[in-house]
Amino acid sequence: MEDFGDIRMSRRDLLKAGAASATAAAVPAAQAQDSPTNVNTPSPSPNASRPPVVASVTLDVNGRRHTLKLDTRTTLLDALREHLHLTGTKKGCDHGQCGACTVMADGRRINACLSLAVMHDGGKVTTIEGLGTPNSLHPMQAAFVKHDGYQCGYCTPGQICSAVAVLDEIRQGIPSHVSADLNARPQMSVVEFRERMSGNICRCGAYANIADAMTEVAGRQA
Amino acid sequence: MNPFSYERAKTPAEAAAAAARTPGSRFIAGGTNLLDLMKLGIESPSHLIDVNGLRLDKIEPTAEGGLRVGALVRNTDLAADTRVRRDYGVLSRALLAGASGQLRNKATTAGNLLQRTRCPYFYDTNLPCNKRTPGSGCSAIGGVTRQHAVIGVSEACIATHPSDMAVAMRLLDASVETVQPNGAARVIPIADFHRLPGNTPHIETALLPGELITAVTLPRPLGGVHAYRKVRDRASYAFALVSVATIVQRDGTGRVALGGVAHKPWRVEAAEADLPRGARAVTQRLLEGAMPTPENTFKVALTERTLGAVLLQAKR
Predict the structure, then answer these.
(1) Best exposed site among A93, A196, B15, B180 by fewest CB in 10 Å?
(2) Closest-CA residue to A100 (of A89, A114, A115, A110)
(3) From CA B142, how far away is CA B154, in angstroms rounded?
(4) What distance in Å separates residue A6's CA from the closest CA in chain B?
(5) Which chain A residue has the Cα nearest residue B82?
(6) pLDDT digits (tens, 9 = 90+) for B146-205
C-alpha cells in the first residue's frame, strides 16, 4: 500500500486547490478579451481600478449574530460560505438558475447568490445548518434520507430549504401556476410540489423521491 | 464585478436626486436581474442606491375603484393578494407563470417592468450588441433567433422583453407612477412605458435619468374571464416563446396582449374588435407587418393557435 506520509488533505482542501488552478488557467483567456481586435468588449469603466468598498454587515444566521466587514460586492452566498464557513449552502450556477444556494431570509426562500450581503444588514437568515443537526434532523431532512431524495447530494441543502418553504407557502394559501382555482386554497399535492420546486435543479434526477419526501412531511403536518 | 459604493435611500425623492447627481449609479431592489448582469460585466454600476427601505410595499385601493401597487411589492405578494386574484386574475396568472418561487420572493413590481432582455447575444460580451454597446451591431440578426421578436423589430435589434407581468399590466392598461430627481411626480401610461428598439435599443423605457418608479396603478376591474397562457420549452421556470393574455366578456368582446413576440408587451387595440370573429382574424391584425426570421416564423402560427385555445377555454 502506498504511504502518503504526512499529507493531510481533506476533500474540501482538495476542491479548493482544484478551483484555484482552474482559475489560474482561465486568466489568459480573460485577458485575451481585451485585445484591440475585440472592439466590442465594453471599455473598462472608470471605476475599474477603484479599490473595493468595505461595509459593516450584521447578520442573524441560524440564531447567532455575526458582524462582518465585507466588500460591498459580496453576495449573501459568499458571506455564508467564505466568511461564516457555513458551507452547507452550495454554489451551483451562481446566477439564480439552479437553486443550490436556496436559504430562508426573513422567513422566505431566496437565491443567496442573487442577493448582496450588505442588503441583508440587520436581517435574519436560516441555512440548512439551522434547520436540523445530524443528531436531530428536521423532519424534511429525515424524509429526504428515508426516501432517497438525492444521489450526489450537491443540490440537497437547497432542495430541503426550498421544500420546507414550499409547504409553508401552501399553508399560507399562496397560489401557483398549477393551482386550478386562484380563489381556492392550494392543495398539498405532488403536482403543486413539482411546480413550486422548479427553481431547484437536480441533475441526478431525484425528483420523484423528493416529491415523496415532501408528501410524507406534508401528510404528517396536515 | 467592479467595486461599487452603496447607500440606502430614505425617501423616493432623495433616491431620485441621488441617482441624478451620481454618475454610474443604479437603483437596486430585488436585485435578481441586476446582480446577474453585474456578475457578467454587462452592467457595471459604480454606485448602488438600495430602495428597499422606501416603504413602497403596500397594495391600496384607489379612489377610482382600482388598486395602487407599490413599486416594492414582491411578485409573490402581488400574485397572492386576494383582490388581485379575484379582480385581476390575468395579473396573478402572469406573475405565477414567471421565474421560480425563490425569484418571485425577491423580484419587485417595478423591477419586473425594468427587466433586461434575455437575448443570448446581449449576454455574450464577446459579441456585438447594440443594446449592450450602442453602435456595435446586432449579432442576433443572422444568428440563432428561435427566441427572438417577430414584430416591431429594427435593423438594430430583434430582442424581446422577457416579462410576463408586464404583458398583463399592458392588457389592464396600468399606469406607472414615478418621481423625478427634482421631486416632481408623473404618471406614464403602460402603453408608452416600454419602447420599440428603433435605432436606440439601449433606451428601453420612457424613464428619464434618475427617475424612480413609485407605484403601478390598476384601473377599476373589467370583469370577464381572465387568462394567461404561456408556451415555453419547459413546463415551468422558462421564458415564453409566446404568451397570450386575454380578458373575454360574455358577449365575446375583450382584450388581447402578447408576450415573447416583441421588444415590449404587444397589444393592438384595433385588433380586439375582431375578437368575436376568432383567433385567426385577431392574430392577422395583431401581427400585421410581422418580420419573423426563418427560425421563428413558427411564433406567428403559435400565437394564433394559443389565442384560439384561450378563446375556446373562455367560452366554457
Answers:
(1) A93
(2) A89
(3) 13
(4) 39
(5) A183
(6) 999 999 999 999 999 999 999 999 999 999 999 999 999 999 999 999 999 999 999 999
Q: What pTM, to 2 d.p., does this model score?
A: 0.91
Nearest residue of chain B to residue A40 (CA atoms): B128
Nearest to B96 among A109, A166, A175 (CB): A175
Contact of B167 with chain A, judged by CB distance below 8 Å, is answered with no
Shortest CA gap B207–chain A (Å): 23
CA distance A53 to chain B (A): 6
* Residues of chain A neighbouring B51 (CB-CB closer than 8 A): none
Nearest CB to B36: which of A71, A96, A175? A96
pLDDT per residue as tens digits for the range B241-300: 999 999 999 999 999 999 999 999 999 999 999 999 999 999 999 999 999 999 999 999
> Is the CB of B101 less than 8 angstroms away from the CB of A45?
no
Interface of B with A in 232-291 (CB under 8 A): 234-237
ipTM: 0.97
Give residue A208's pLDDT.
Answer: 98
| Residues A53, B4: C-beta atoms closer than 8 Å | yes
Tens digits of per-residue pLDDT, A26-55? 443 333 333 333 334 444 455 557 899 999
